[in-house]
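Posting here for the record, re: magnesium ion.
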Amino acid sequence: MSEIIKLLSDSVANQIAAGEVIQRPASVIKELVENSLDAGATDIQVVVKDSGKTLIQIIDNGCGMSPLDARMAFERHATSKISKAADLFAINTMGFRGEALASIAAIASVELKTKKEDDSLGTHICISGSEITSQEQATCPIGTNFLIKNLFYNVPARRKFLKSDRAEYRHILNELHRIVLTNPEISFTFVSDNNQVFKYAAENLRQRIISVFGKSINQSLINVGTDTSIVKINGFIAKPERSKKSTNEQYFFVNNRYMYHPYFRKAVEMAYDKLIPEGERPSFFIYFSINPANIDINIHPTKTEIKFEDEQAIFQIVNAAVKESLGKFNVVPSLEFSENVTRDAHFTSNTSFKPPNIEINPDYNPFEQSGGGQNYKRERDAVPANWNSLYSPSSSSKTPDDFFLPEEQQPEQRSLLDDNSMKAEEKAIFFQLKNKYILTSGKSGLIIINQKRAHERILFEKFLKLLETRKGVVQKTLFPVIFEPSPSDRPVLLEVMSELNSIGFEIGMMGQNKFEIRGVPGDLTDIDPQKTLEQMIYVLGEISGSAEMVLHEKIALSLAKTAAFKIGKLLHEQEMEDLFYRLMSCSNHNHTIEGKKILEIISVDEIEKKLN
Ligand code: ADP
Ligand code: MG
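Prediction output follows.
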């Protein structure tokens, strides 16, 4: 029998390797910019067209390459950064695997111009599908200039999996943020489709954070730092009021490399316990310096997951350092009278802020304590007061498990119902289970509703309708909120601003980077406008890949997901009732847009079987 095992050709092997290192345009940018940093560049320019799908260019003023090195650089495992296994334990460069250029050259067409300081002429190389198609001398400045065109041109399956331009653009910005935040002393320029998105001069870390996230972050930043025998930590954490509903402003770096580390993130978040609302996350920029021998950055080709030898000890160190900084700066909510806290107070549902123009709201807000819900109120009023008291707001905090009516009240309850001339379904009683489910009785059995999903469905249908009719009712905010979206959120906000205004937001531009929120939809009076917008843009990014949905549906869904009250919210009986009837009037009350079940009915038959 003849042998069947063959060695793969280099170009095939490189294409396979590329699958791991290069997932999307952002990965190319990450690898090339890291190479520029390793080459000692102090100025790096990144240019993209169509979110990097058609063109990526990286220009640096680093050390450049000799003609031979320029050619060698594209070979797999070709690296100038390590030469023996022992070097793996003392890595102080960003790259070391020698895979990136070989991978990129296997799946795109690449042009390279590079010149070393001492050479009078540089080198110009063109490569396509791992083959060098031309190499010649060229006049060019000191440094390296990479031009990557038509990414994945020969791997159609990969190209197909790329997300929308907006999603890929977001990935690129995220990647660039990680890099610019690690290297404030280096100047960076980013140009996308001929627009300059940012240009950062060399600056210190605090200034760089402000350049990236806007001036508003300045007053929130608190120094964090500690020096132990295991690890040295420095950087900034933000005051609690800066917290976000996403992880967008959470950054860890180790030895100048971005790292993803959910365990240490927990250490930081635990230090903020009770200082920020549930579901929100503190902003932080924490830099670890550690002996490279005590970490393993080799566990994943993209090198963002890093293993530490002393994870538990470092967890304690991080937690203590953050607590100390919060304590030192006296960050305790009750003592905090900064502009943000007082401003936010006007938008919480517990304040006495009442919408002044509720009577012109055609679609009343059932989640307000007063004002709306007139129809159902009339029905409730028909029921004697002692009936109401059985299900008063304070008693609804009990779950059905621990809510037993005193025996003597039960006959009374029945007679009250009988005395009333209401139809059976109007007499429904609503219970809340674990602040998560609403239970009520239906014709055929027990109805169990997931409250969050129900609210999401109701808001989705409502917003979708408003987007089509453009008749949203604005609820003016007491004070306009100035909103400075992050650079990645800005283009998205611009894109959807007119839609948001049509459903009841009143958002205006105040300058290049500033927006003013002057009103919110009538249904959303108890939201924090800025956080809601940020979260909505974040959710929009998450669902933007879904090709079946049109923009209006995406906007309605992302806003509904953001504004739907969270699981765990205690609902009063009136709120449950209103939610129920609004859900019943939705075009689909059984499933969420994403196909998840909103309600389940347990039939009387099933109950009888169980209790047999
Ligand atoms: P690695 O970064 O892991 O060494 P790469 O494939 O990314 O592998 O790069 C291969 C080699 O090409 C590098 O080791 C370096 O010597 C050279 N090189 C790549 N980019 C640059 C650049 N911008 N300036 C100078 N040399 C570079
Ligand atoms: Mg590299």
